[in-house]
Design a protein that fits this description.
heterodimer, A: alpha/beta, Nucleotidyltransferase, domain 5, five-stranded mixed β-sheet, two-stranded parallel ribbon, 4 helices, 9 strands, 31% helix, elongated, B: alpha/beta, 5 helices, 40% helix, 14% strand
């Protein structure tokens, strides 16, 4: 009887909490490796269309992103409901795209400058007129590698 | 408790709080980026070379109007038929010069050879981007299907799997070299001549 500690009947041993942080650290490391820091908050509606014949954008440092879509609710009062271009946190016009590309290109290291891809993240309800203006501007600054960024899926879902 | 000799155990409960704080910080400030899409090359701005005569039958005209309706070579078709029509156009082999186009119908009003076949895409300013992407997807899909078929026949693997392996950073330089030769050969069999005309606005 003296070998057993004086336990009140019905009392369970305290659960050791030493391993709780380990579980949480595992989740934390997962998020640290899988995600990237958001550098722009997206101010436009941005539901990308689906496509099946896609290629992955491998190297993140060689990608310049342009968002296009209708402004979200909090901005639609000021900026309207027509689709707009967002460059790095600010709304812009098609004519600003050329300067933006040149600026971003100058920020990249020398070797990478000729291998840049422009990623167009366009909402599926945007109209093509705006897109063709952007493409015209891109051609003027010789940024010819373009990637229409989409989710992977059946492309026929875009039409419904 | 006289069981433990040494310092009493530090209460680890607050470690979990610190970890949760860090976790919530990362959850809020980071995103899992979508980073895949249709790769296209825009044509450079240059004076158009008008001295190359292109026969009308070698051009496959695709028009999308503002309601998303599709016109291929003058006839109204459904989106799901586009891939089949594009493939039939590309491998038509009108003059018999293509040795690998065994399924070509040799229709005299369609393309002569895959290397001369051009697909031209034109859309309206009011066309929805989603429709545009679907059409682009189907056209690229037509090229990929033909290329995959040839690649299966020649190298027992699909063209898209070769491209994927070539693009990955882990593959060694020697593997990339031989992949590059194979990829270039398949690309020359069905060169992707997809041009986009200026958009019009019709009212």
């Amino acid at each position: 009887m003296s070998k057993f500690s004086k336990k009140k009947s019905g009392e369970l041993p305290a659960v050791s909490t030493a391993s709780l942080p380990d579980i949480v650290f595992m989740l934390l490391f997962f998020f640290m490796t899988v995600t990237v820091m958001k550098d722009n908050s997206v101010k436009v509606e941005n539901i990308l269309p689906n496509a099946s014949e896609i290629k992955k954008l491998e190297k993140k440092d060689r990608v310049i992103t342009i968002f296009v879509g209708a402004p979200t609710k909090e901005y639609s009062r000021v900026f309207g409901t027509e689709p707009k271009i967002q460059l790095n946190d600010k709304f812009a016009n098609p004519s600003d795209v050329g300067d933006f590309i040149l600026m971003e290109r100058a920020k990249k290291p020398q070797e990478v400058q000729n291998f840049l891809t422009t990623s167009l993240k366009v909402d599926k309800n945007a109209n093509m007129g705006l897109i063709s203006d952007i493409k015209q501007e891109l051609r003027k600054v010789n940024a010819l590698k373009v990637n229409y960024t989409t989710y992977e899926g059946d492309a026929f879902n875009n039409v419904q | 408790m006289g069981r433990r000799a040494g310092a009493p155990e530090v209460n680890a409960g607050s470690m979990a709080d610190i970890a949760f704080l860090l976790l919530i910080f990362f959850l809020v400030t980071t995103t899992i980026e979508t980073d895949a899409g249709l790769d296209r090359m825009l044509p450079p701005i240059e004076p158009p070379e008008n001295d190359v005569v292109i026969k009308q039958k070698n051009i496959f005209q695709v028009n999308i109007n503002k309601n998303g309706q599709l016109l291929a070579d003058g006839e109204l078709i459904e989106l799901k038929d586009l891939r089949g029509k594009a493939m039939a156009f590309l491998e038509n082999n009108g003059d018999g010069s293509c040795t690998y186009c065994s399924l070509g119908k040799k229709d005299a009003s369609s393309s002569d050879n895959p290397s001369k076949a051009i697909i031209s895409l034109k859309n309206d300013r009011e066309t929805k981007y989603g429709t545009y992407i679907t059409v682009q997807n189907e056209l690229v899909g037509a090229y990929n299907e033909l290329r995959n078929r040839e690649s299966e026949r020649l190298y027992k693997r699909t063209f898209t799997s070769m491209e994927l392996e070539y693009a990955k950073q882990e593959t060694s330089a020697s593997v990339k070299e031989e992949l590059k030769d194979k990829i270039t050969r398949i690309q020359e069999m069905f060169p992707q001549k997809l041009s986009e005309a200026e958009t019009s606005s019709s009212n």
